[in-house]
Amino acid sequence: MPEIKPEKEILSTEPLQLDAFSLRLKLALAFAVLSLLPFIFIAIRITGMGRYIAELSAKGDLNNSALARAVTEQSNAFIVGSIEFSIVFFILVCAGIIFADRILVGPLYKIITWMRTARENKFAALAPLPVQSGDEWGALGYEIDQSIKYFQEVESRERQIAEEKGEFISVAAHQLRTPLTGLKWTLEVLRDPSTTPESKAKLLDQVSGTTERMVRLVDDVLDVAKIEEGKFGYEYAITDIIGPMQHLVNDFLVVGKSRDVALVFEHDEDALPVYVDVNRVTLAVSNLISNSLDYTHGGGRITLQVERAGRQVRISVQDTGIGISPEDKRRLFTKFYRGESARRMHPDGSGLGLFITRNVALRHGGDVTVESEAGKGSTFSFNVPLEKADMGKVEVSVGNFFASF
Amino acid sequence: MSETSATDFSGKSILIIEDDPLLHSLLADKMKQLRDKGVKVFPTMSAEEGLKQAQESKPDLIMLDLVLPTMDGFEFLQRLRAIPGFEKTPVVVLSNLSADTDKERARSLGVIAYMVKADFSLSEISAAVEQILQGKQVSPPKPADGTLTKTPLGYMTYL
């Protein structure tokens, strides 16, 4: 898988240069000014005191030597005390600067460096979060980390969708080319005057099956596209389900006989009204039966069963086919996915049928359940409601294939 | 046709491996027209059957489909090349897979030509087969409208 490159380089390669008045510098300046404040204050007080002493001595009051000594001692003590206080204050301020830098600016720089590294690596390998503290920086780092992971997830999903689409196009091209080749070659033979009328008739028979296959493939592709866009509409009504299912089984009888697979329809009641889009349900069941036919060997048996289950009706298709391995079961309803043994037995399937069937089940308030044992056979079933009130919550996914998983 | 119609291919044989029933019968019927020139045709519907038939009849040319049930065409080629005497048997791939990776993989397994089925008519295929049986270096048939451009590997490529 080649790396997807944006048309224009979105990310700048140059880091943003911090201007001269970075946060760290501003903080240092503020603390420097603060630490000088006591010195200024003390200097003003000492100057004032000096002026007072000068005034006293001018008046001659300082001739009293005892008072003069006392004043000098007091002022000396004040000066020493002030200097001591200023030094202690300065040390406290320094500690304050370091502390503030540690808790405020330091983590910020760590987050910046971490994001810059992530960006330079195109967010490929995200380093663990640098700030684990429970404070606001920790919260900010967490939010950034989560946002990056969210967009990474979105991007990888988009890439997966793109890959699936690419795979689908190549599968569909192959699938369409094979019947088209059949048509092309058949026309060539029909046009050949040496072809006998008997072989012409035989060819025309064969070719009609081929065109049917193409029509079905194109229908499936369009249905899947509609599901993806959220435009696969449903028209629910109270309708009998037994009649349409009987018709469906009858339609498959010829193919079943040609492959020596018995088709059985089991139902308790002759008519059973349910609240469904009968065309969609018929399509879903038809996909299940045609899958079972493809993966059941001659001599096998397929049973379609319609039975009441409380306020629901359970529709199930059981076969004695090749079964599904546990790992295939997990991806079974993914578009275009085809099990290993399925690909081996029928290389031409499109891998779209079950995706459509599951959408039908979901839109009737249920889901498709699968019971299967490799080599023994599989049972696919889903429920439809008797009345509108019995329908479970219907998840309608619009344009998001992942919302249904 | 006038040049090749006189050619005698007696003793030559072709093995066909194609699983799609319609394509199988069309291709087999077309190749059987070469019987008049002495070519024996062995049509088979799976790679397993093809391997067995190849060892029995030692064909001069194998026409191989790639997407086959149980064993695909690539695996067939790997197994065939491992059998003594089949290292150089000419194989023409006739498949509707057209990805470059598939063509490269077939090329690495020593096929002499890779033809995308949908791009050729039965007569073109038949003409190419005749030329290969004559041991000729074959130029790719010209597209009918002359405007189609095909990748070198999309055409018949002789390796």
From TrEMBL, chain A:
Enzyme class: transferase
Keyword Cell inner membrane in annotation: no
GO MF term set: phosphorelay sensor kinase activity
UniProt keywords, alphabetically: Kinase, Membrane, Phosphoprotein, Transferase, Transmembrane, Transmembrane helix, Two-component regulatory system
Transmembrane segments: 27-46, 77-100
Protein name, as recorded: histidine kinase
Database matches in SMART domains: HATPase_c (SM00387), HisKA (SM00388)
EC number: 2.7.13.3
Reactions accelerated catalytically: ATP + protein L-histidine = ADP + protein N-phospho-L-histidine
Entry annotated with the keyword Nuclease: no
Coiled coil: none
Domain Histidine kinase: 171-388
Species per Swiss-Prot/TrEMBL record: Candidatus Kaiserbacteria bacterium RIFCSPHIGHO2_02_FULL_55_20
Automatic annotation (TrEMBL), chain B:
Source organism per UniProt: Candidatus Kaiserbacteria bacterium RIFCSPHIGHO2_02_FULL_55_20
Domain Response regulatory residue range list: 13-133
Entry keyword DNA-binding: no
Modification 4-aspartylphosphate occurs at: 65
Span of the signal peptide: none
Keywords assigned: Phosphoprotein
Name assigned to this protein: Response regulatory domain-containing protein
PANTHER family: RESPONSE REGULATORY DOMAIN-CONTAINING PROTEIN (PTHR44591:SF3), STRESS RESPONSE REGULATOR PROTEIN 1 (PTHR44591)
Domain of life: Bacteria
